[in-house]
Amino acid sequence: xxxxxxxxxxxxxxxxxxxxxxxxxxxxxxxxxxxxxxxxxxxxxxxxxxxxxxxxxxxxxxxxxxxxxxxxxxxxxxxxxxxxxxxxxxxxxxxxxxxxxxxxxxxxxxxxxxxxxxxxxxxxxxxxxxxxxxxxxxxxxxxxxxxxxxxxxxxxxxxxxxxxxxxxxxxxxxxxxxxxxxxxxxxxxxxxxxxxxxxxxxxxxxxxxxxxxxxxxxxxxxxxxxxxxxxxxxxxxxxxxxxxxxxxxxxxxxxxxxxxxxxxxxxxxxxxxxxxxxxxxxxxxxxxxxxxxxxxxxxxxxxxxxxxxxxxxxxxxxxxxxxxxxxxxxxxxxxxxxxxxxxxxxxxxxxxxxxxxxxxxxxxxxxxxxxxxxxxxxxxxxxxxxxxxxxxxxxxxxxxxxxxxxxxxxxxxxxxxxxxxxxxxxxxxxxxxxxxxxxxxxxxxxxxxxxxxxxxxxxxxxxxxxxxxxxxxxx
Length: 475
Hints:
By secondary structure, this protein is an alpha+beta fold. It has helices at about 10-35, 170-195, 210-225, 230-235, 240-265, 275-305, 315-345, 350-380, 400-420, 425-430, 445-450, 460-475; strands at about 40-50, 55-60, 70-80, 85-100, 105-110, 115-120, 130-135, 140-150, 160-170.
């Protein structure tokens, strides 16, 4: 016997209400984000044509705090070119970075000059070049000395060099802290309530969705990162790396959850590790390994060279990109195969079919919303090679950031609600021996393969009451 799910007791009106509450909560998060502060604050510095001979350019940032989180220096080369012209060329630059302490003393970071080549891509106007990216801030102010070589050899004359300092808005950092804190508290409460609802059932009687929810909810707690405030207290790369690790683990666990549920709902009884779990862990593990490797690769190199970008390592980046796309394609095809097979085999099975329909419908809604958000935020640039390297510098408002956190949190809260047993679940499960209660509390094995009750003649409630009345009259 499996632990009953609230899903079995919901009427059509309740299902509609569940989706309405989900959309209301998600919409509330988006509206709060729209009303919130901008994510990135920018300070522009323009080098005019008559200053081009003054090499190198000395650019000083405004005073910074830990609430600025990260710092970028970008450059846009403005050319006097026709609108229809386009070209691509390499630009070599030299960079020195000096950090300024609160007492006014300064020192060069890593005490060396960085030489880097950037790709200048010009269509109607030239694309933005990232000169420097600091993943965490050790000093209260930074001075960057940057020089460009062979600028006079470009196809068209240069009008201006537009430099821009970019950093996280301190107001947004405070909003992020509070939102993460709220989601951490809500996730902790949902996790405790879900565990409390299953306390009277043995773990071996839990359904596969309930077992996975007991794993995903604690991982969602880590995804919201209760250690996030450490990044404002400690000047170190470790809190940021920990946040990236938690997010990648949760997202890959969610991918694994979809594979296991759509396959496991068909495979009852013992699920062998080698044939059931190993292929799924292998595919999702490769995706996780690619994400973590890329993040560690970027972070470690930026610690030694703030001008480093993994898109500059064209061979390595293209290899990683192809590897990720191939594994992601295999995952999507495997998931579609499991969904189609589960729906075709179990569409006529009561209750099991209900589980499939609800999970598929809610997951489809979440994926569609995610794709829409990505398209509205990035458009066609999502397919470009420089997309990953410039993700974090193109937030327009808080809604773009908060929408993903709210979407995944409310998705898990909704699943936890429908997969948890109802208040009377234990009492109803104890009525299983009564043949008058035929399907509601049957296990998945009984629904799919049949049970001993099917051999008994069907009796409705009126016939049973009539039988008891005759016995009492005879007494």
